[in-house]
Backbone:
């Protein structure tokens, strides 16, 4: 009986040690992987589309045709990157890489412009504009998004472009710009039904959309046809200014919702200077050492923002975590970041 009691004590002790080890392991912080997409321009005018994983750069393509990576998303071990380039005399065109390999979208829809790549569940969505039936680049294009490579064309968005996308249940929300016959106007679509945000007499653009619950939040800018343009967002179609409009220009570029807080990033120009900004529930704060902010990502209650930072004489690629800047280029050439994605290893 005493022997059995001793064994029970031993088992209990081992169980406690195991529990302590498990608790210790649970308390060990996991450092997330930070993915960034952007580009660079060398002193001799050569552009490079590239992305970074934890500060290690991966070059996708280098040419004189203005290539730049504009958006990045990661699903499992697959890295999806969206890019934009321009070639004369053909014009602009979009590019898509999966794990560094250039991948076509669809055979019947040439991407003349691409805006954003997002992953919802196992599905990869790309926004932009497309040319139907591979017509010449001089033909009109339509606002388009691709789901797993298959194009969905918004027929009421001639000469339009889509940038932001958000899935809420079975509803697909996209936002962008569409022509009213004279200039572009900010709009969003819910399951293909169009809602106009900007005034027809003004020029405006909708660049990012988020739909927490029943509220539709859209970030963008607007102003007179020839400028100036001012940062703003729309909540359920109602315009909310983000500045007092005393600046030269300002732009809201991206949006994220965390709980009841609405975060918007962009930049404000005053004369020849530019300052990266983050707005939390409409209240702006500067992002240190930043000239522009282009992308925001919320992960484990931390706020990550990507953009371009001050340098001498060149702009430097930068991201902020909770407002603290980290440079990822040395300032020897112009380097910028357009998109950020954060996930656990």
Residues:
């Amino acid at each position: 009986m005493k022997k059995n009691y001793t064994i029970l004590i031993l088992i209990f002790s081992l169980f406690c040690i195991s529990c302590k080890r498990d608790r210790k392991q649970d308390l060990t912080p996991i450092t997330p992987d930070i993915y960034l997409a952007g580009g660079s321009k060398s002193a001799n005018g050569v552009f490079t589309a590239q992305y970074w994983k934890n500060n290690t750069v991966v070059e996708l393509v280098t040419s004189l045709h203005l290539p730049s990576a504009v958006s990045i998303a990661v699903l499992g071990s697959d890295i999806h990157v969206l890019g934009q380039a321009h070639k004369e005399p053909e014009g602009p065109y979009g590019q898509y890489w999966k794990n560094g390999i250039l991948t076509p979208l669809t055979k019947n829809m040439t991407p003349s412009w691409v805006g954003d790549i997002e992953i919802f569940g196992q599905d990869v969505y790309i926004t932009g504009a497309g040319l139907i039936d591979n017509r010449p680049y001089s033909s009109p294009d339509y606002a388009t998004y691709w789901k797993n490579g298959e194009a969905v064309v918004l027929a009421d968005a001639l000469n339009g472009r889509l940038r932001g996308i958000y899935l809420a249940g079975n509803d697909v929300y996209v936002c962008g710009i569409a022509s009213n016959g004279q200039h572009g106007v900010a709009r969003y679509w819910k399951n293909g039904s169009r809602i106009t945000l900007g005034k027809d007499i003004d020029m405006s653009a909708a660049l990012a959309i988020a739909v927490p619950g029943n509220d539709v939040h859209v970030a963008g800018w607007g102003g007179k046809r020839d400028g100036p343009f001012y940062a703003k967002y729309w909540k359920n179609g109602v315009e909310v200014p983000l500045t007092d409009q005393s600046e030269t220009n300002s732009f809201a570029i991206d949006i994220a919702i965390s709980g009841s807080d609405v975060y918007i990033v962009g930049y404000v120009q005053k004369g020849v200077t530019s300052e990266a900004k983050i707005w939390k529930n409409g209240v702006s704060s500067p992002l240190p050492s930043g000239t522009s902010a282009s992308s925001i990502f919320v992960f484990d209650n931390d706020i990550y923002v990507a953009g371009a930072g001050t340098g001498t004489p060149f702009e430097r690629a930068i991201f902020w975590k909770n407002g603290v800047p980290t440079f990822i280029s040395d300032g020897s050439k112009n380097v910028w970041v357009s998109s950020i994605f954060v996930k656990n290893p």
